[in-house]
Amino acid sequence: VKIKASEARDLRKKLEGLEIPRLKEEHIIKIIDLMPVTEDMLKAMMQGYIITINKDNMKKIVDTVKDFEKK
Question: 61, 20 in Cβ contact below 8 A?
C-alpha cells in the first residue's frame, strides 16, 4: 500500500500519539514503510528488533495503520 508523504507524516504523528512504551522512531518508520494490517504481520516485522509490544498495543498500531490504508 502506498501513501502520500503528507499521509505518512500524519500516520507518524498518530503512531507517536499512541505513546507505546519503547516504540522508537526507527520502529515507526518501519511500520509506515510496510503498513502491517494484521497483528501477525506486525509481530513478524518487529522480530528483527529488541522490543516487546503487548497485544493491546499491537491492536492499536494495526487499527491506526488500517485507518490510513482506507484513505
Answer: yes
CA distance 55 to 52: 10
In Å, how far from its chain's centre is CA 17? 11
Count CA atoms closer than 13 A to 3's CA, side-chain side: 20
For the record, the C-alpha cell of 1 comes out as 500500500
- Kindly tell me the sign of the dihedral angle through the C-alpha atoms of 34, 38, 41, 42: positive
Taking a C-beta distance cutoff of 8 angstroms, is the pair 68, 49 a contact? no
pLDDT (tens digit per residue) in 28-60: 999 999 999 999 999 999 999 999 999 999 999
Place of cell 485507518: 67
Q: Identify the CA nearest to 58 among candidates 70, 67, 48, 46.
A: 46
